[in-house]
Amino acid sequence: MNNTFYVTTPIYYVNDKPHIGHAYTTILADVLARYHRSAEQDVFFLTGLDEHGQKVQQAAEKRGLSPQQHCDDLAPRFLELWERLNVQYDDFIRTTQERHVKMVQKVLQEVHAAGDIYEAEYAGWYSVAEERFITEIEMRSGQFRDVKQINEKNYFFRMGKYQQTLIDYIEKHPEYIQPAHRRNEILGFLRQPLGDLCISRPKARMNWGIELPFDRDYVTYVWFDALINYITVPGYGIDEKSFRKWWPASLHLIGKDILTTHAVYWSTMLFSLKLPLPKTIFAHGWWLTGENKMSKSLGNIVNPLDLIEKFGVDSVRYYLMREMILGQDANFTMESFAKRYNSDLANDFGNLLNRVSGLIGKYFSGKIPEPKEYRAEEKAIQAQAEKMVGSINEHIQALRVNEAIESTLQLIRVVNKYLEQQAPWKVAKSDLPTAGTILYTATEALRISTVHLFAVMPQKTRDVLKILGCEDLNLKWGLLKPGTQLPSHEALFPRIEDET
Ligand code: MSP
Questions:
Q1: Is the pLDDT at 1 greater than 50, yes or no?
Q2: For residue 131, is it left (φ>0), alpha (ψ between -120 and 50) or beta?
Q3: How many domains does the chain have?
């Protein structure tokens, strides 16, 4: 089995302030990376910034800065957010870095040498907002802002040449584009003739980009530049050992709006380079507010930093991971945030810790009791905890993070119910050893659930494990040590009282 896991996020446009949508994909990649690391896989997690193109150039001009100064000024916002969100990436690429500029030029040379780039005169409509040429029909739809008629010489990538190869590949590899409805969408798109891709911009019109190595009057189209980041970092043609280790990537995580560029542009670029395609491109849905996509232009952005400030980073990570079914859209509201937080984190998870530590404090002077003989009830709890390991693995492999979380929460709920039914506070009065067995079982199940949640909530789970005196992320039943003194602690997740 391949023991490496190389996961990427899109590289974000440096212009936008990072919002929940960006935070979501990056946290998702982080959660998956953490799970795979804990399964002792060799993990590489890449994220970064997309810094070229017209929009950056225009934004810089507006601020009276050079594009590079503008990027250098904005990049720290992302780094700060990833740090605050506890995102453990292995590399952070910026497309203005020399390693990337050189790589894009190397790729252009190779694709050119393979005969896949040609020069042609182009006359047509160009959308400045979308940074691409649009068709007559798109032009007439009126959906595009900032449209100009352009007549110029440009360089084109023979994308159309690979149309059938791509169709055959997608048909043979159902895991390549996920979820399945997105795969069908791309296959539908490929039923029409696939044109070639304009990959240059004349410097006279736009010069903030990577110069074409075979014509200094042109820079590279921003998407042709950006996609290459995924092979820049593992070192295509530069560091053979590393490249062989990490490429093909295991998983490109993207949002549904950038599926065509990945599934079609990137795949055909890789065909031209004769490189294997990534194993999976997964397109997730959008975070909406009401009916709308959260976006800067609509002014309905939820700022992740404000949420973290108020509710703590792990609650935000938890909500985003639990609430979105991967592949579908999800709605972000403060009501649903508070509801989810109160039910799962305050009532179920936080409450279980409070109960066991309170009861152990009261009846066992705060020391984890020794378990005696397990009865059917204890055996059932142990069995459920042990069974969960396999099912959580399956959920993670299939990218059902919300279900992995849900099955952990189910165990927590079962244990809370078990405590209510067994009432160790009553049992303790007549049969202290049995009360001890009940409390040991509940606490051990809590420990195992906590280990399962660590990838989602790295900080809070560490706090719990510390309280339980067992910081190892081991899922084996029975590792909790009787006699361990539990320290006093604050409520893990105080309830949110005002849900508005
Ligand atoms: N720079 C390109 C990606 C190049 S990858 C080689 C880009 N950047 S972006 O900043 O505009 O968007 C990055 C990602 O954020 C996309 O995957 C997009 O789907 C995602 N999101 C932007 N708004 C979103 C939501 N409201 N909800 C979820 N994700 C969304 O495109």
A1: no
A2: left
A3: 1
